[in-house]
Design goal:
about 120 residues; 2 domains
């Protein structure tokens, strides 16, 4: 096992290059591990959504690090989370401030829009 003192001795023989390289690699490795962790933000959030007409509830899982919503690729901005459900069709738009969830689906007769409410939790 190579120790830091051994690297330091060997690095001195090469003008400090080996030590500098070793420290650079260690710093890079540490920064890669912490890249996804941003203070004050969870990487995954579960939203509980409700159809106000029927009272039906379901979950929406958002992964900010992977930019997905319910495992579908999502466009995540400061104001909304938008994704396309390729399994069942339709486009979802979740307002991050109000929790309003809008579902839009195209049909041969022009399509329809549904409105739901969501809250993080």
């Amino acid at each position: 096992m190579t120790t830091l003192s051994k690297l330091s001795r060997e690095g001195a023989a090469y003008g400090g290059f080996a030590l500098t390289l070793a420290l650079a690699v260690a710093t890079l490795a540490a920064s890669i591990g912490a890249a996804g962790a941003q203070p004050g933000r969870q990487s995954k959030v579960d939203f509980q959504c409700t159809n106000p007409k029927s009272g039906t509830t379901w979950g929406v899982n958002v992964d900010y690090d992977r930019s997905t919503a319910n495992s579908f690729p999502a466009e995540i901005t400061n104001s909304q989370i938008a994704w396309h459900d390729t399994s069942h069709g339709g486009y979802y738009y979740l307002d991050r401030v109000s929790g309003a969830l809008t579902f839009k689906n195209a049909t041969t007769t022009g399509g329809y829009t549904l409105h739901h409410t969501c809250s993080a939790g």
